[in-house]
User: Fold this.
Amino acid sequence: DGGITQSPKYLFRKEGQNVTLSCEQNLNHDAMYWYRQDPGQGLRLIYYSQIVNDFQKGDIAEGYSVSREKKESFPLTVTSAQKNPTAFSLCASSPITGGVRYGYTFGSGTRLTVV
Amino acid sequence: GESVGLHLPTLSVQEGDNSIINCAYSNSASDYFIWYKQESGKGPQFIIDIRSNMDKRQGQRVTVLLNKTVKHLSLQIAATQPGDSAVYFCAEKQSTGSYQLTFGKGTKLSVIP
Assistant:
C-alpha cells in the first residue's frame, strides 16, 4: 500500500541536543511538507519542498532544518535553537501537477518533548 | 492522547443525530476544498473534497456544501457515531496555479453515546 511514514512516534530531546525526525513516502509525490500542530492553533508550516535538492521556509522555520536528497524522503532536524518544549510534528506529501485530487496525505505524526 | 483539540470550537452531538461543521474560507479565488478528520494522536485523514464549480458533493454518510457567495464550506455527517469524534478542519487551494493548501483551525466534534 502506498503511504507516508513518520518515525519515531515519540521522541525526547535534551536541551542543547539536535534530533532528526524521519518522513518517507512511496506515493511518488513531488511535494513534501512539515507542519507543527500546537493545541488550538491548527497547522503551521515549517518547511516545504517541491523538488529534490530544493526547499523553502514556511511560517515557523526558526530552529529547524531540512534536506531533500531523495524524492521519497524529507527529514526534519530540530535544533537546540527551537525553544518550544513540546510539539506534535506532521509530515505530508502531495502531487503538484495534473491529477484529480490535490489533497495532502499526512503521516501519523511525531510527538517531540524536551526533557 | 494528543491534545490537538484544546481551545478549539466544540460541537457536541447525540449519537444518531446529524452533525454540521462549518468553515469560512479566506480567498474567493480558491478552487478546491477538502475536509480532513484528525483523531487524537493521529495524523489528519482525507474525508471528502469539492471543486469550486460544484455546490454539493456526497460521500458515504458525509456531504460537503460550498457557498461561494459567502465563502462558506460545511460538512454534514449523517447518523453521527462515536467513531466520528475527532477534530475536523477544512483546507482550501487558493488558485488554479497553486498546489499548496491553507488549513482552517478546526472544530472538535464530540459524540454523546
